[in-house]
């Protein structure tokens, strides 16, 4: 590590750098929403029953068992609707209002940045949203519903919307000892336009491309002027292309890469640590309001 340990975690040096920074990029991950009660992907909460969330977030899983994948997403929609933005979401939205040169890229699909009133022109939803719907015949069929909060989306998915009456017990849906309802495709919503495709969550699954127009716009933003600071918040920096932006945006000798993580070591980032970088270990919901004030 080129940076001196003391400088690396100095809040006062960070505040000086922030004051001088106009172009700031944030890359956010599931750890940002942990304080809102939403499980992360790879942490302890990352396992959904005995399924690994990453295995369910694929077109192949949806093809093989759309009912199971929809139960997973209906559950996450329900959780996200019950959750609230936390102080970290509000601190980022406030930074966006103070610094027009700030841009937030989030991997999170929980809509909490939007509910924290983050200015939309300074926010990129890299992996889409739990509350967007589209036809599984896309791109052939263009039908989408950009914002749908029906909970449950259809009667067959009602188990995902059950209120947790006894918080000391897992929701029946989450209790691996209880068999999951076997939902047939004809019990799931079909596209109102083409009438043949199943409706699917408007998220980017593993193996699917991110929105090209959005990627081009981010590249243009990064390339137009040097970036002063990259905030890497609550992400294991494991998923690409999101994880690659910190190094892509770095200008040697100018850009400070600032990692905010509950376990600094866990950020499996490819990010090197350079002179001028910062690292702050703890809950983003506690650290960010202090760092960005
Ligand atoms: C694509 C939506 C190309 C769905 C998600 C290059 C190199 C290697 C691999 C690839 C590569 N390019 C592409 C790949 C393959 C793949 C990939 O990256 N695989 C990984 C597993 C290696 N990438 C893709 O498939 C991408 N597509 O590149 O397409 C292409 C081009 C043309 C044609 C076809 C294809 C698509 C990736 C998007 C996948 N979708 N989400 C859904 O959400 O259900 S990704 C999913 O993981 C979530 O979005 C999640 O946010 C994201 C990343 O995880 P994290 O957010 O980092 O969460 P994680 O749990 O891992 O970590 C939490 C962190 O927070 C931890 O560090 C923890 O310590 C910390 N933390 C916890 N609590 C707190 C905290 N920090 C602070 N405070 C706290 N309280």
TrEMBL record:
Pfam family, one: SIR2
Keyword vocabulary terms for this entry: Metal-binding, NAD, Transferase, Zinc
Lineage: Eukaryota, Fungi, Dikarya, Ascomycota, Pezizomycotina
Annotated residues for binding of Zn(2+): 135, 141, 191, 194
Name of the molecule in the record: NAD-dependent deacetylase
Family: Belongs to the sirtuin family. Class I subfamily.
Keyword Ion transport assigned: no
Cellular component terms per the entry's GO annotation: nucleus
Chain segments annotated as coiled-coil in the UniProt record: none
GO molecular function, one term: histone deacetylase activity, NAD-dependent
Positions annotated as active site in the UniProt record: 127 (proton acceptor)
Residue ranges constituting the Deacetylase sirtuin-type domain according to the UniProt record: 1-293
Transmembrane segments: none
């Amino acid at each position: 590590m080129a940076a001196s340990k003391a400088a690396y975690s100095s809040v006062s040096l960070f505040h000086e750098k922030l004051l001088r920074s106009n172009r700031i990029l944030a890359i956010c991950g599931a750890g940002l929403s942990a304080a809102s009660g939403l499980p992360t992907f790879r942490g302890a909460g990352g396992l959904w029953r005995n399924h690994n969330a990453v295995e369910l977030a694929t077109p192949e899983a949806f093809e093989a068992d759309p009912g199971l994948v929809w139960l997973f997403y209906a559950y996450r929609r329900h959780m996200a609707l019950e959750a609230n933005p936390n102080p970290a979401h509000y601190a980022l939205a406030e930074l966006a209002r103070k610094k027009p040169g700030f841009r937030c890229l989030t991997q999170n699909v929980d809509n909490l940045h939007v509910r924290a009133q983050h200015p939309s022109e300074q926010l990129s939803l890299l992996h889409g949203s739990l509350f967007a719907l589209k036809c599984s015949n896309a791109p052939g069929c263009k039908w989408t519903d950009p914002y749908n909060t029906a909970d449950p989306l259809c009667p067959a998915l009602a188990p995902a919307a059950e209120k947790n009456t006894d918080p000391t017990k897992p929701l029946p849906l989450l209790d691996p000892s209880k068999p999951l309802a076997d939902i047939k495709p004809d019990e799931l919503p079909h596209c109102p336009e083409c009438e043949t495709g199943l409706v699917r969550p408007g998220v980017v699954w593993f193996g699917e491309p991110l929105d090209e127009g959005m990627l081009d716009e981010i590249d243009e933003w990064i390339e137009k002027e040097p970036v002063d600071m990259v905030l890497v918040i609550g992400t294991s920096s494991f998923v690409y292309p999101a994880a690659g932006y910190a190094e892509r945006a770095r200008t040697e000798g100018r850009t400070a890469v600032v990692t905010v993580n509950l376990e600094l070591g866990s950020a499996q980032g490819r990010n090197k640590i350079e002179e001028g970088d910062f690292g702050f270990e703890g809950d983003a919901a506690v650290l960010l309001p202090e760092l960005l004030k």
